[in-house]
Structure formats: C-alpha cells, structure tokens
Design brief:
GO terms for molecular function: guanyl-nucleotide exchange factor activity; small GTPase binding. InterPro entries: cDENN_dom, dDENN_dom, DEN5A/B, DENN_C, PLAT/LH2_dom, PLAT/LH2_dom_sf, PLAT_RAB6IP1, Run_dom. The longest helix has 34 residues. The radius of gyration is 40 Å and the shape is elongated. Helices cover 43% and strands 12% of the residues. It has 1075 residues and is an alpha+beta fold. The strands form five sheets. Strands 8-9-7-10-11 form a five-stranded mixed sheet, covered by helices on one side. Strands 17-13-19-20-22 form a five-stranded antiparallel sheet, with no helix packed on it. Strands 14, 15, 16, 18 and 21 form a five-stranded antiparallel sheet that branches.
Length: 1075
C-alpha cells in the first residue's frame, strides 16, 4: 500500500450518486530506469461524516441564493445534498506488471466489502498475506495465491521467453487499429516525442505498455510517463524524446492544448483513433507484411480493429459463498496432483452436487478463459514483431566494432570509439528499408543496445541481450522463409509454454490466516471499507517493507522543477556538440575517402544527420516557449522577429522558398537546409537571438535560449559546420523553382567577337536540364528560372550558324544559383564557330563547383572573369599545346594519368549507390578518363600544318575507319569472325557520330566516341585495331609508334578494368546519337 488511511493528505472526489467502480494502473520510474507498477481500484462510498454533509448543504444553499433569477429547470434539485458519495481507491504496488493478478485481488477485496456476508477472515489477513507471504514466482514458473473470494494465478516467463507483458495488446489494437499501432511503433523506435491522449487512464497505460513491450530487444531510454499528473505538466516542455499520456478533460479541444513541440510530436488521440505523426515519417521495414501478419493473429482470436470507444472496466465476479471457495480450492488441488484415493471420490461427489445446486457459477471460468486467451494473443503478437526485428538485425554482430582492449579503456572514452559500422550495415539492406534504418541507427536505444553487446565481452550480458542473441543463434540453423515469417513451431511454442504454466500451477503460496489483532475493530459493514489496523500490517514483517524510489522528474517542488529544466539545458548543449561533431567527422571522412582515408557516410546518412539537427533545433526553440504561432517553434520565432524588425530586415524569408502552399514545418526545414548550405545557419540564429526583449516575451526564465553561456556555446558548435560544404538544400528540396544566371566569359582580347554570335545554352544537373535557353544578342548573360536541377554537371554551349564571321573564343561559362549562392565554372578554352579551331558550333562543357556560398564574388555583377576562376585548367592547356607541335609529355606520365582516371572510376562503382559522385565529372571532367585517353592519342601526334591546317585525333580515326571499310570491301581483313566484329563496331560507331545532326567539332566527336566506347566496353577492343592500322606510323612520331608494347597494350589493359560496370551517360553527352 502507498499509505494507510491515517496518513493520506489527498481529498476525495465527491458526487451526488454512486458511480461505477473503475480500475486503472500506473507506473513510477526511478532514476536508474527500474519501474514500479501501481494498480488502482477506485470506488465510491456513501459519506456518513455529518460535518461534510452539513458543509455541502450550506454550499448548496449559497449556490441556490446566487442563482435565484435562474429558471426552476436550471436550478439544482433540493435533494442534491441528501446523499453524498466520496471516492476511495485501493492501490497495490508491484515490482512487475502482474496486471491480471492485481486486478483480481483488488476486485475481490472490493466485492468482499460490498457483499452482505462478511469474508471468512478480516481484510488485514488477505492484505498481509499478499504483501509479506506471497513471493514472486520464479522465472518459468507459476504461482497460486488466494484472494478474498478465490485463487489467483500469476506466472513469470523463463529465460528463453519474451519478458513479462500482461497488458492486453488486443485492446491496444482494437483501440487504434493495426495500421496506427504500426505507425506508433515506428515513432517510438525512432525516439520521437509521443503524447497519448484519452479520457480513460487505463487506455493510456494499455497503449503505452503495449507499445513498449513490442520494442524487444530494444528498450525505451527516455522519459516514460503513461499518465502525466497535473503538477508535472511542465514536462510537456521537455526538449527530449518522451512517451507520456495526458488525460482528456471535458470540454477541452485538441486545438487548445498549445503543445510546444508539435513539429516533432506524435500525437495519439486514442478516443478518436487518430494519429498525427511528424512530417517525413519513414515506413517500418516491410510494413504492409507486418500489418497483415498482425491482422491474422487478431483474426484467430476474434479481435477486430473497428472503431470503438474505451472499453468499460471488466465486470467483477459476483460474490460466492464460502462453500464455493472451498470446492474451487479442492478442484485446483486435484489439478496439481495433490489429491488421491478417497479424497478424489469425495471431490467427484461434491462436484456433482455443486452442478445440481448451481453452486459453481460460470463467471470464474469465463474470466480465467479470457485471461488465458489474452495471454496467448499477447505472446503471438509480440513474437510477430520480434521476428520482424530479428530478420532486420539478424547479422548485427558482424558490424559491431570491438576496438577497445578492456572495459576500463572503453568506459573512459565511449564516444571516441566507433562501436558499429553503420554504412556497411546499411549497404546490405534493401533500399526500401534504408530511410527507416538510417534514422534508427542514430537513436539512443540502438546505441545502448550496441553498448550492451560490447560490454558483454567483459561482464555477463544482460538478459534481453542474451535472449536476443540466443534466438538469433537458434534461427541460423533453421531454413529461412520470407523475412519475419514465423509460422509454425517457432511462433506457437512460446504460446503453448505460457498456457501450460497458467493451466497447471507450479507453486502455491501460504493461505491467508488469522492475525494477532484487536477484536471488534473493523467490523464488516456492507458498502463501507473498514479502517485497517495499520500496526498489525506493519509489525509482522517490517524488514520486507521498502521505501518507494522515484525519479527526480516526478518531484513537483519549484527547486526540483528548476533543476530538471537545468538538466534539460545541459542535455541540449551536449546533444548539439555530439551532432555537430558527428556531421563534421563523417563529412570530412567522406571527403578523405578519395585519399584512402576512412569514411562511411552515404548521402542517406548525411540527410539523416541533418534531419536530426532540424529536430534538435525545433526542440531547443520549444523549451520554455509560452507564445507560439503554428506547429513549428523556430518558424514561430522567425515570424515574431519579422514582425518586430520588419520584413526587409528579417532573415525569416529565404529567397525562392516561400512560394506555394508549403506547410510550416516544411518551410522551417527548408530554411535550415538553405542556411546550412550557404554556411549562414549560425549567423542567422545569432541574429535571431540578439533581440533579448523578444526572447523574454516569448520564453519562460528556465528556457534554453535565455541561458546566455549555453546559448553561445550552442551557436559556436553550429558555426563549426561551416568548415565543410553541404548540398543538403539542393538535393532535398528538388521540386522548388530556382533562378539561375549564366555568364559567358570570352577571351578578353577577343571579347568584341561576342557581338557576331547568337549563342544558346542548356544547363544539366543531377535532377534534369533547363532546356535550350537563347542568350540575347550583344549580351553575355541570361537569367532564367526552372525547377531545381540539383548539382550541375554539364552545359551545352552552341550558336546558330551565322557565317564565317560568327565566331568567338570562349574561355569559360559561369552559372550562378541565385538561391544557394553556388557558383559553377565550365572551362572551355576553345573557339566556337565555323572555319576556326575544329569548326564546332556546339560544345559540351563539364562543370565544377568552385565557390559554394560565394555571395561576394567579384565577378558576379561585372560580367568579367572572377579572380578565383582563373584561366582554363592546366590539363586543357597541355592538350591545346599538343595540337601545334610535338608533345613534351612523357609516356610514363600519360600512362599514370590513365591509370589514375580508371582507378577513380573503379572506386566510384565499388561505393554504395548513395555514396557515388557524379559520373560525368569522373569520366569527362578534369583528370577524367576521356581527357586521359585524349592525351594518350595526342602523345606523339605528328605536327602536320600543310596549308595552316591543324591535325586532330578524329582525323586519324576517320581515316583508319575508311581504310578498314576499303579492306573489308575487298574481303582482305585478316583474322577470324571474332576479330572482325570489333572492326565492324568501330566503323559503325564512327559513321553514326558523323551522321549525327549535332554541329559538334572534331574534338566533340572524339569525346563522344570515347564516351560511347567506355559505356559499351569497346575501347579495349578498338585500341589494337587503331594500333595496327597502316596509318599509325604516318600519323604518330616514331617514339609513340615504336612503343606499341609500351603504350597501346598497357593502355588497353587499363581500360579493360572497367568491363563489367554499368556506365550511364548523361543525355547531354549522347544527344542526337542512337547506338
């Protein structure tokens, strides 16, 4: 008992009629995470105290005088105070959730009080028995003890079964529906803030306990208050994950709750069977299959998930005469094998007489059958979910990193060790699971699960961890069906084991007996609970009583509340430190991957970390908030700041984002992503927090944003994110419209030539292309707006044929993203026009991001070449220099560049798909394979300037193809049919490129030739043909030709390493050519 009647400080609830008794439970969590379960049977007893009834009559008279003007129909009845009822509660505390046993014991205690006949023993005997003489059942065993009116059975699972969970999952599914329960389970696994809402307190406990018992093998690590008391409503401001329940009050609407963290809150309205989840909630792995399996289990037990109101409290069994109780005890003794011989014969005669006289009634048997059915259904439902989680994490041990040598070294620096290889684990998962798993791997419950696995190397593993590992070990020897499928013995064996424990009890506790107590006190009065003799209950076993331990969170005193919120402040600051550190370390690790450094961050994981940062900012801005507009706390602060400072001075409206009917949460996430990409997040937030007067108006004194020192450290951690580049806005918000600005930069000495051409551009990126955009004549730039193109990769630059005078030398093209401030440079260094250079009227340029967030770019407004862009790259200059004379590049340098380019491509294809960079840049950009192959062909190319005419590699390829066609027509091509096929494909590809309607020059055609050859795996077959061509000795210097074995053969081997990879070329590269 929490307290005896003489120590109560709480006032009963008074009413004018006897309400039906109610049952509900609650839980108290200690600081170490252990829980104590309370079970409450509330009933209403007639008030006999004359002082109370007289006071109520006086209040009634005063009320009637004040409302004399009211109509008689609306006036209270004069008999209002004649009969008065007050609430009383019987409460039993247990260390384990023995829901059915506690409910039955309290119900029998209440029925004994209401019964006209006195119980066989004083109530103190039964209470003393259950408190001090009834032990906990051993694991894997059941225990029978006695209530006032009959036996009660409770049991504990053994070490191979799922932990104890008696709260009826069938009721939870009936209350919410299968789909809503699965979504709620997803929110809890992802450690969102979950608020349950219902009029019925037991419904809150049923859903909360039901959903947490489905988490196996994981455990909830944060605030857990299924029933939130009134003095602790300040915990709704908690900026941490929580699972809490709030009782619905009459007349209170959902919209009037004014919850501070709605952007990150999962709100569960149990009475209306509705679920409000945060935006972007991922699906549980194989969610539809899981829901179907759960429906099949519910259907077997006749449970439907149709809309239903809160279930009424179960009807208590009607009181039975003592003869019935004795007979039930004898029946149970026979089931346990404790009767034999004459005793059995006597029992059979008694049963026959009882059946004839209807002494044994049905409610007891019906109740036992319902409890058994509920227990079996619980096990099956939990096994279905546990099987799904086991299928997902069945190989988790392979990715646990045991880097620490001993327990002390691990405990001294748990954050400095990589405990789980998340990228490798995600790489083996189905694509449909990645969104959920990437977020789940960042939760505290998963990190605690991995930590327990690591610690089990040095100490005994915890029961849950050991049980999960044992189940995985047993499952490895069983043929696997579809993921999560546990039909047959694997599912029904635990059900049968639990059923046997309930049907045949293993132990029987001491029967209640008469205590040494005062005679005459506490006489039985039907309908009135007697005053218990507290000294009798205390003196018999004082050493077994213990003080109730509870978390400091449950202390409602002002000093404790202040300390609680101070700890929340420290927790937010530490979480910010860890999240920014993780973002920095993993991002730098990804960038060092090319240099051989560690790093396993995929684009999906990076998006998950940034999503976590958005949630952290929302929770931080919601701590202690008093005045809010809309669901987002940060956006609300931005709106208030905007109203104070004015729209023109406010950073609250990010350019290009606020169009359309985008919801508030999406707006603030876009604002965060954009500020992070532009490296302005810390700067904007610092400006937002500079208005101290506004902060004091919006927040309570304990709010994080009013803690000056912690707030400055928070901003400093966010400022550290500027050390790396992010494209989070560009890659996440793909459907928005972006304004782009394209500037063509000609060679300064020949800039006047731009007036003679009529150029056009087509910009392409990861998400699409802009289409052809005509640049106005006599200008060098164009503005246009189109759907987000993502990170830019290629730019097609061309001009309409305008005669021999329409030509210009293009140094580069620069494209500006006017929203993110990114600048892309597309080097050219070529002529554009007929009769000059290679005569190209169209070029495909490869871009590179040169200055993310460069809003102060000096060349942005002037139209001249920005200083940081410089001249064409050195590699382009080297290629240009080789056209006019003998190349001074050594053959070893050429081979090394080819090997390096091919190696980069191989590494690209061996990365997870989410981690791969732009293939076009690796293939055609600076240092790419196409450029390396171009250098290879240029090496030793003879300088033939007859009539001032340049010689291009494409000239050599065309002549070689003409030679092959001539030889093929005379059927003199040596070799077998397999040797003739490469020659046929070479001729076919060259003819197709020449027949293309595009106005590509010779260099453009050769680039397309190499790209198609790499894509289709034909380059390694074409190289020997070109090396053996009779034109080769006349086209190349002797140093190149004589090195057939030095250059051509090794180069063929380098390119051959790319065979087997799927190379997908951008449409801008192969436009107009169908092969």
């Amino acid at each position: 008992l929490v307290h005896y009647p003489e120590s109560t400080d709480h006032h009963p609830h008074l009413c004018s009629y006897a309400r039906e008794p109610l049952f509900h439970s609650f839980t108290i969590t200690a600081d170490d995470g252990t829980r104590t379960y309370g079970f409450v049977h509330t009933f209403y007893e007639r008030v006999t105290n004359p002082r109370i009834t007289t006071a109520m009559q006086t209040l009634f008279q005063m009320h009637r005088v004040e409302h004399q003007a009211s109509s008689s129909a609306s006036s209270p009845s004069s008999s209002y105070g004649d009969t008065l009822y007050g609430s009383k509660a019987l409460c039993l505390l247990m260390p384990l959730p023995f829901l059915q046993a506690a409910r039955n014991f309290l119900s029998q205690l209440y029925q004994a009080v209401m019964s006209p006949a006195a119980p066989p023993l004083p109530l103190e005997s039964y209470i003393h028995n259950v408190l001090y003489e009834v032990p906990l059942p051993p694991p894997g065993r059941s225990l029978r003890f006695h209530g006032v009116q009959g036996p009660i059975v409770c049991q504990q699972p053994d070490a191979t079964d799922l932990p104890l969970g008696e709260y009826p999952l069938g009721d939870a599914f009936a209350l919410l529906g299968v789909d809503n329960v699965v979504r709620l389970l997803t929110c809890v696994l992802l450690e969102m803030q979950v608020l349950l809402y219902s009029r019925d307190l037991q419904c809150l406990m049923t859903v909360a306990e039901g959903i947490t018992c489905l988490l196996f093998p994981f455990q909830w690590q944060h605030i857990y208050l299924p029933i939130l008391p009134g003095p602790l409503l300040h915990l709704l401001d908690a900026p941490v994950p929580f699972l809490m329940g709030l009782q619905r009050r009459d007349g209170v609407q959902r919209s009037s709750l004014n919850l501070p963290h709605e952007a990150t809150l999962c709100f569960v309205d149990i009475d209306n069977r509705s679920l409000e989840v945060p935006e972007g909630l991922p699906s549980f792995p194989d969610q539809d299959q899981l829901a179907q399996e759960l429906r099949e289990v519910l259907l077997r037990y006749g449970v439907t998930s149709q809309p239903a109101s809160s279930p009424p409290p179960p009807a208590s069994p009607s009181p039975r005469p003592p003869a019935s109780l004795v007979l039930e005890d004898l029946i149970e003794d026979r089931q346990n094998g404790n009767l034999g011989g004459e005793e059995l014969a006597v029992l059979e005669r008694l049963q026959a007489l009882a059946c004839r006289g209807r002494c044994l009634t049905g409610p007891l048997e019906d109740r036992e059958q319902k409890e058994l059915r509920s227990a079996k259904m619980n096990v099956e439902l939990r096994e279905v979910v546990a099987g799904r989680l086991a299928a997902v994490f069945g190989r988790y041990e392979e990715f646990v990193s045991h880097s620490a040598s001993d327990l002390d070294s691990w405990l001294s620096n748990p954050e400095g060790t990589c405990s789980f290889h998340k990228g490798s684990f995600l790489s083996i998962q189905p694509v449909s699971h990645l969104h959920f798993l990437s977020r789940f791997l960042e939760t505290s419950m998963f990190l605690a699960f991995v930590d327990r696995k690591l610690i089990s190397r040095w100490v005994d593993s915890e029961p849950l961890q050991r049980l999960f590992d044992q189940r995985l070990e047993r499952g490895r020897g069983v043929p696997q069906g579809p993921p999560g499928c546990q039909k047959g013995p694997a599912l029904f064996e635990p059900v049968q084991t639990g059923e046997q424990r309930l049907l045949k009890t293993d132990h029987t506790a001491i029967h209640p007996h008469l205590l040494d107590m005062r005679i005459g006190q506490g006489l039985h009065q039907p309908g009135f609970f007697p005053t218990l003799q507290a000294d009798v209950l205390s003196r018999h076993a004082p050493n077994k009583r213990r003080n109730l331990c509870y978390s400091r969170l449950l202390d409602p005193s002002p000093s404790a509340v202040t300390q609680t919120h101070r700890e929340f402040v420290y927790g937010l600051l530490n979480e910010c430190r860890l999240k920014t550190k993780r973002l920095l370390v993993e991002r730098i690790g990804k960038e060092s991957l090319e240099a051989g450094g560690p790093g396993d961050l995929s684009g999906l994981q990076e998006g998950t970390l940034i999503q976590g940062l958005c949630d952290l900012l929302e929770r931080t801005w919601g701590h202690g908030l008093t005045l809010k507009q809309g669901p987002s706390t940060l956006w609300s602060h931005l709106l208030h700041y905007q109203a104070v400072r004015g729209k023109s001075d406010s950073p609250a409206r990010p350019s290009g984002v606020c169009g359309g009917h985008v919801i508030t949460v999406a707006l603030v996430r876009a604002w965060i992503h954009l500020a992070l990409e532009k490296k302005l997040l810390s700067k904007h937030l610092k400006e937002l927090l500079s208005d101290q007067e506004l902060l004091r108006q919006l927040y309570r004194p304990h709010a994080f944003l009013l803690c000056g020192e912690e707030r400055e450290q928070f901003l400093f951690h966010l400022l550290s994110l500027n050390a790396v580049d992010y494209l989070c806005f560009t890659r996440v918000f793909t459907a928005i419209s972006i304004p782009y600005r394209v500037v063509i930069i000609p060679m300064k000495k020949l800039s006047i030539a731009m007036t003679t051409v009529n150029p056009w551009v087509c910009v392409s990126g990861e998400l699409g292309n802009s289409g052809v955009r005509q640049i106005p004549k006599n200008t060098q730039e164009i503005f246009f707006q189109c759907q987000n193109l993502g990170r830019l990769s290629t730019l097609q630059l061309g001009q309409d044929s305008g005669g021999l005078l329409a030509k210009c030398f293009i140094e580069c093209v620069v494209v500006y993203n006017e929203v993110t401030g990114h600048t892309y440079k597309f080097p050219c260094g070529r002529w554009l026009g007929k009769g000059v250079g290679d005569g190209s009227l169209e070029r495909v340029l490869i871009g590179q991001l040169v200055s993310p967030g460069a809003e102060e770019d000096s060349g942005k407004l002037s139209g001249t070449t920005p200083a940081e862009l410089g001249s064409p790259p050195q590699a382009v200059q080297a290629v240009l220099g080789s056209l006019g004379g003998r190349s001074k590049i050594l053959s070893t340098e050429v081979q090394e560049e080819m090997r390096e380019a091919a190696n980069n491509l191989v590494k690209h294809f061996h990365k997870p798909e989410q981690e791969r960079e732009n293939l076009t840049v690796l293939l055609c950009g600076e240092g790419g394979l196409v450029q390396a192959l171009h250098k290879f062909f240029l090496h030793g190319l003879r300088s033939n300037r007859l009539f001032q005419r340049n010689v291009f590699v494409w000239d050599f390829v065309e002549k070689a193809v003409v030679s092959m066609d001539t030889v093929d027509q005379t059927d003199d091509l040596p070799g077998s049919e397999s040797q003739r096929m490469p020659a046929d494909s070479l001729c076919h590809y060259v003819h197709a490129i020449n027949d293309s309607p595009r106005n590509m020059g010779k260099e453009g055609k050769f680039q397309l030739f190499l790209c198609l050859g790499v894509r289709d795996g034909l380059i390694s077959r074409w190289l020997p043909l070109l090396a053996e061509s009779p034109l080769t000795p006349r086209t190349f210097e002797e140093s190149a030709c004589s090195g057939t074995a030095v250059l051509w053969t090794p180069s063929r081997g380098v390119v051959h390493t790319l065979h087997g990879f799927t190379v997908t070329l951008e449409a801008s590269l192969v436009r107009g050519v169908t092969l």
